[in-house]
Amino acid sequence: MPQNIPLEYYLALSAIMFVIGAAGVVTRRNAIIIFMCIEMMLNAVNLTLVSFSSYLGDASGQMFVFFVMAVAAAEAAVGLAIVLSLFRSSQTVYVDEVNLMKW
Amino acid sequence: MSLHVIMFSLLAILAIATGVLLVTRRNPVSAAVSLILHFFALSGLYLTLNAQFLAAVQILVYAGAIMVLVVFVIMLLNLGKEQNLRENFNPRTAITIAMSAALIMQLVLTFTGNPTGKNQLSAASEKIGSPAEIGNILYSTYIFPFEAISLLLLVAVVGSIILAKRTVDK
């Protein structure tokens, strides 16, 4: 282990987190857990942006993360409102039981 | 073994472990709690990168607002354990795990294959991570996205209220 952490270690960690989140989105049935895995993917991308920003000395990466966090908060509110109204109409949050529009 | 290396290793292990826990827990509340721990690990990782403002905002926004909202919704819907209809280890899960492992290996090899030579944090990273510099840049260079974000948040609030409102029965 070197004295300092190279940039690639942060990128590799972020890639691992992203793939774990993607596997969760594909595998799980519960809509809220799928949403939480999406948040994890967003955080993996945030880590990539911040590590590039810190290692290259450019502030735009951290600004991008700021806006990604704001968009994630807005998406959380709207997405959970959608899940709530879905539950109210069909009494389920499992995404494989919501198939009214399937042909 | 400098402090940077020790903290990075511990926080990376915590982040990956809580990530795997999130994906595998049946109970939604356990998954939410493990995601909160994941956000704390990420906040620590931002601190190792000298991004002090973002570390604080990560705790405030993600762990403090988004996850609280998620836990509220889970409690409101009163979900139990996710029913495991397919009790056996079905092939879909095995294929997912195999393809995820392959994708992780491919991405890690891509990132570490050509070393960029950046082995140390940039000298400017401490300055650009501080709230003063973020504020300077946010209100000068990025003023237009800042205003657009405020409009987005307004639209999101109005939209989520309308979506979640009970329809009035005539």
Which CATH architecture of the largest domain in chain B would you pick? Answer: Up-down Bundle
Secondary-structure element pattern of chain B, one letter each: HHHHHHH
The CATH C-level name of the largest domain in chain B is: Mainly Alpha
How many structural domains can be distinguished in the coordinates of chain A?
Answer: 1
- Count of helix runs of chain B: 7
Helix content of chain A: over 70%
Instruction: Determine the number of helices of chain A (DSSP H or I, runs of at least 4 residues).
Output: 3
Percent of residues in beta strands of chain B: under 5%
CATH topology of chain A: Helix Hairpins
Low-confidence regions of chain A: none
Low-pLDDT runs of 5+ residues of chain B are none
N-to-C span of chain B: 70 Å
Backbone structural class of chain A: mainly alpha
What this model shows, in words?
The complex is a heterodimer of chains A (103) and B (170). By secondary structure, chain A is mainly α. Chain A has one domain: Helix Hairpins (Orthogonal Bundle). In chain A, 76% of the residues lie in helices and 0% in strands. Chain A is built from three helices and no strands. Chain A has helices spanning 7-27, 31-56, 60-90. In chain A, α1 (7-27) packs antiparallel against α2 and α2 packs antiparallel against α3 (60-90). The mean pLDDT of chain A is 91. By secondary structure, chain B is an all-alpha fold. Chain B has two domains: 1-82, Four Helix Bundle (Hemerythrin (Met), subunit A) (Up-down Bundle), CATH 1.20.120.1200; 130-170. Chain B is globular and about 65 Å long. The model of chain B has no long low-confidence stretch (mean pLDDT 89). Classes of the chains: A mainly alpha (103), B mainly alpha (170). Chains A and B meet through α1, α2 and α3 of A and α1, α2, α3, α4 and α6 of B.
